[in-house]
């Protein structure tokens, strides 16, 4: 099974890019973030025509998450992260796919920081940690995939000194991510490539992609019940070079079938 995560940065504006990549890569499951589309504007028909069914939780102008499936049933479990009934941001959706629980998440950016947006990021992180701990307690195969908006370590950024004032690289953000992983999750890309510089995001400014001045902020965390089935992982970084593309590139893992 090939599973991908992709911050599409506007699912309708980037639909040609998404469809081109789906045809090329043929992932079985895709977690999308930052749809930037209300529920009724999600391009369901275009994706069905491409062979993908979908569940999604949209939001006008901002946020929005979806899970796509090719030849697999998507059994939606929830479309909000537990812990705050007043949080209206569309940032989490969860489904059972072939007996694997997949959570697709778009963690808050947190900038400008410090400030209210960073405080919200940390609160959201705490809710994610609580839910992740619950999922681990169920002792089932779980994948938490998405845009975590966290640069975990210095090897995950082209020039660490340039990001010291950014919420993605604040010590508090990195510590929250470490606390999450330390619950017992496996960072899929780092399991296979512990020392390599791997990026999933390149800014639109200052020729970041051309200079390979990137960040690794899109992550797969695997529960112990599934981490042993990880056989490969990578980033389709060439997609970042396509015309009118997202500033993220699709990131993927492959698992042995159950």
Automatic annotation (TrEMBL):
Protein name, please? Exodeoxyribonuclease-3
Q: Which SUPFAM superfamilies match?
A: DNase I-like
PROSITE patterns membership: AP_NUCLEASE_F1_1 (PS00726), AP_NUCLEASE_F1_3 (PS00728), AP_NUCLEASE_F1_4 (PS51435)
- Cofactors required: Mn(2+); Mg(2+)
Looking at the record, the residues that make up the Endonuclease/exonuclease/phosphatase domain are: 4-248
In the record, the note on similarity to other proteins reads: Belongs to the DNA repair enzymes AP/ExoA family.
Q: Which NCBIfam families match?
A: exoDNase_III, xth
Say which domain of life the source belongs to. Bacteria
- Which species does this protein come from? Dyadobacter arcticus
Q: What class of enzyme is it?
A: hydrolase
What EC number(s) would the UniProt record show? 3.1.11.2
| UniProt cross-references to Pfam families, sorted A to Z | Exo_endo_phos (PF03372)
User: Which keywords accompany this UniProt record?
Assistant: Hydrolase, Magnesium, Metal-binding
> For this protein, what is any one GO molecular function term?
double-stranded DNA 3'-5' DNA exonuclease activity
* TM regions (residue ranges): none
